[in-house]
Structure formats: structure tokens, C-alpha cells
Amino acid sequence: MLKLILMEAQKLWHLSSVRISFLLMLVFPLVWAYAPGIINVYGFYVMSAFQVPALALRSSMEFLMPLLVAMVSASLLGLEHSYGTLPTILLRPVTRSQWLLAKLSVAISFPFILLFFTLIASLIIAFPYGYGDFIGGTGLGAGEIVGVGQMTALAALQELCWAYLRAAISLIPISCLALLFTILFNSGVGGALATVALLIVMSLLDVFPGVKDILLTSNLNFYLRPSDETAKVLTTLMVYAAIAAVIAMLRFEKKDV
Prior knowledge:
By secondary structure, this protein is mainly alpha-helical. Helix content is 68%, strand content 2%. It has a two-stranded antiparallel sheet.
């Protein structure tokens, strides 16, 4: 099984959507670190290199990050359909469930890879601001950018790492949904579009208080939620991921390819 996962991971790096994702995620830290009109538009100066990754995360998690994760996850299976290689692959001595589980494992790992890249790239791009203690906040904790006083470099780095980890976890269901829709529509493009469409519809349902807390879109801000809500949000996210993964496995087992 490990060998199968490694084979699928190698395919990941050959996807053009992955290269596009990395390039796009360089734009946000560059804008926040060096755009001359930040003070005029948002009313604050960037004071520390630790603030740039936080600003990049908050701005990209609105729409772009879920879109990129959906696009890459759908492409993992969609390209097999596009090139007509799926029937040949399934002739190998592995079950359909094992093969799809390898795809799911790689798809789920991609949000962590992308966010780790974004964090490191943001810190490197923002190096002129320095990595020492500073007055203010990272933008991901108490007081947000203004902060509540002096913040140490270690505390800022810990706050960033914890927020980026939680953000990656919140994107796991999107990876699973993208694979599910790709199976249903026999198309990577269709799978990605269906996933994004579902997220848009869910965001519109925020006006209904009774369902707001269980919507996937309402929990994508997991990285900003207080610690006392961690268990509830994490459970909601994992339920979405598990349901999508199980349906995908069951549907793929019976699907004609």
C-alpha cells in the first residue's frame, strides 16, 4: 500500500495545477509585504515578518485556497479519465479500494504541502521586516494585527504554525469532495467545479441559523476559532471528509470504467 501511495505522490508533482498553485501562493505574501498602499486601504503597517504569513493565510482562505485544493484533488483522478489510462491501471494486482485509498491519501496530504510551502515562502519573502520580538500581533491571535502588547518571536512562530495546521485540516473535506465528484462526473474539471459550486451554495445558506454551524463553509475558518470550539469544529470537518470518502469508495467499486 505504501508503494502505491508513493506512486500516486509522484504523479502529484507532474500536475500543472500543482505548479500553478505554488506560483499563485507566492503572490499573496509579495502583495502584503511590498504593496505600497496597504496603510491607505487597511489602515496598518506591517511591523514584523511574522505578520505576512498570517495576512497571506487570511486572504487566501477566503476562496483561492479551497479552489486550488479542489482543482488539484480532482486532477489526481481526472487525468486518468482524460488520458484513458484508468482501465489499464485497474488491471494491476491491486483492488479498486486500495487504488482509490492511495489517491485519497495523496489528495488529503496536498493541503498540508501547499500551506507549508505558503508559510515558508511568506517568512522568506518578508525577511526585511525581521524575525525578532515586536509590538502587535500576527493577525491570527488576540488583538489580531494590533495585538495586546509585545509578542516574542517564538510565540509568533507557534501561533502561525498552529493556525496553518488548522487551516490545512479544514481543507481535508474539500479534497475528499473533489475526488467524489470526479468519480460521479467522470471528469476532473467537473469534479472541481462541482466542489466549488457546493461551497458557494453552502456559503449562501449561512442566513439559516439552524444549519450554519454544520455547514462546511462555516468551519473553514477553523484556524481562527477559539480553542474551546476545537473539538466541535474538528468533528464536523472529519464527518464531511469521512462521508465523502466512503461514498467515493462505494461508488468507485461499482463504477464501469
